[in-house]
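Quick log. Single chain, no ligands specified.
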Amino acid sequence: MTTQRLTMSQALVKHLAALRVEMHDGSVQPYCAGVFAIFGHGNVAGLGEALWNERAQLPTYRAHNEQAMAHSAIAYGKALFRQRIMAVTSSIGPGATNMVTAAAVAHVNRLPLLLLPGDVFQSRAPDPVLQQVEDFHHGDLSANDAFRPVTRYFDRITDPRQILSALPRAIGILTDPAQCGPVCLALPQDVQTQAFDCPEEFLHPGIIRFRRPPADAYQLQEACAALRKAKRPLLIAGGGVLYSQAWDALRAFAETHGIPVAETQAGKSSLPWDHSLNVGAIGVTGATPANALAACADCIIAVGTRLQDFTTGSHTLFAKAQILSLNVNPMDAAKWNSLPLVADARTGLGQLQEALAGWRASADWTASAHTQAGQWNARVGELTAHVPQGVLPYDAEVIGVVRESVQALGQHSDAQDVVVCAGGTLPSELHKLWRAGLPGNYHMEYGYSCMGYEIAGGLGVKMARPAQEVIVMIGDGSYMMMNSEIATSVMLGKKIIVVVLDNRGFGCIQRLQLACGIPRFNNLLDDCVPEGGQTPAIDFAMHARSMGAHAVHVANLDELRSAMQAARAASSTQVIVIDTTHTRTTEDGGTWWEVAVPEVSPLPAVQSAHADYLQGKQAQRL
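-> predicted structure:
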């Protein structure tokens, strides 16, 4: 057996650099597009040296915040439908724990992320080393053990030879359609630098090819039997449709059988917004026709969705329907007493279509879906074209200007733009109102709803889709949580457009607070000023300019339109700030969502809200 004398880090990096993947279109590309790194004493000498040696084959990118760089890596993988990844490395201590939140984002959203945090000395000779978290009861624990509950696979490399089995195992998880999620290889800083005789074959791995598991014959038979009884089926497209690149199969299945399609936050853009069977967003942030059809459907065909509470209206929206769950993950397929069909989304839909030849939904049901879809599209046009007089605009009106401003350049925004967002009010408005014409043009992190994902995520999307305009829509609250990757986008020459909607605090949560009967408290900045303090006057445009972006504050929607046109024509990162109101929202659509209200309170408004809460729970599916 031919070997090379390499350090553990050198072997790891060479293997990553050599990995190739066969994409769904048949092309072969590097699997790992690069490594985001913030160096410290725990990774600069070991992994840092190895990355420098392979910089021509495996680029290293400098970020400004460890959590943010991991968000960028997650967004990169999501934008390419989980076919390629980026890795992230930090030093031990705060660098590593900064990435735990991002690991949870990837875990919840079933997205690939390779985490390579430095770790304390395996030898324990200098313990406690700088930044080491000492456990008083377990001598073998470090801060990196915090990754265990938020990763699919965790390993600590205590001997350099262990990388020969640990890294392929991690790559196997990252590329597995059912288990895909974050993996963490904790790298003690002394082990990073130790040498061993590395087999040559480890440095020349085979091409990665993704599996498409078919459905079990018995489960397929049961699914078809249930569907043939259905008259009013509704298909819910989740993120698994996009990760499987099953949009053509979805369209063919829906058209062949006359089934309307609703989309989750993760599944939005599975069908073009103007397809006659696309009835819009589903659930708490959903559109009127999708939720109306869900309420009277006799069968829900859930494809590639986790059926989280925002999709199901906390399990009230389609509580009486039979649920058929087509999912590559057995746990997701079995949720809420669903009839499971464990298979790849594209393969499974093809099998169902063939097996259901001759069956169609009720003609009246299909016709009603067509009508309601057309009415909803007209309503979206009205909501996003409205120009307020004498009051601040709200999110829908801003979305309309952002979306349509591209028309001045003779293009169509539904094909050119990728919108990126995460927490707050915007996900609700965008889910209902954004028009996505191509798969992946709607990029929402709403599984973990992680405020601060937006700007870093936008950078990752731009790195994955450099030919498209990437528009980050973000509230002032999320901007304050994490904005440093504006500077990274400037440094890397990766232009994004950031639209900041400033409602001066956490307006979304204040509305929820008031709806639960609690007085306004600790959300809007004006409500948070103690005696002797003052409300902060934050100039977001000036702040963005300080990081190298071109930034403006616009006074109204007309100025926003002009600023958007200028931003589109620019070649570097642009930030546009506009004052908005949180007191107006789109009332169309939506459904009940369970937020627990105190059973006992001296406040009459809380008592009333609790009574409403109990009323809502009566419709829950148990």
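DSSP finds 25 helices and 22 strands in the chain.
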